[in-house]
What we know:
With 125 residues, the chain is an alpha+beta fold. The protein has helices spanning 2-5, 14-17, 50-59, 70-76, 98-108, 114-124; strands at 39-43, 64-68, 87-90, 93-96. The chain has a four-stranded mixed sheet with strand order 2-1-3-4. Helix 3 links the parallel strand 1 and strand 2 (64-68).
Amino acid sequence: xxxxxxxSNSSFFPLxxxxxxxxxxxxxxxxxxxxxxxxxxxxxxCGRAEPIRLAFHIGGKKFEDVRVSAAQWKVLxxxxxxxxxxxxxxxxxxxxxxxAILRLVGKWTSIIDDLVFNSIQLILI
Length: 125
């Protein structure tokens, strides 16, 4: 019940649901465009990507919210690091793992400071 009640298509998230952009998944890392806004790939639900989406909005940084259907996921899965979503595409590089992406977005948007970010880099090693 919780999962469907708080989906991004519900009326509780009109801003987020209006930002869904139809992007062909063939673009993922094949036709890379440097300096392009980051692309966040996740299913058409809140799930693990919702904190990342909210961090982008809180920090005021533009991004493309790519919603992946079940059929598209079959094609996309082999290209994803760890064969998992969410995946963040930035300057032709793919980043995975929700908490790592969330910390990265927090650094870009200045939600977290340098001291915290340096400790995060140690955690990722």
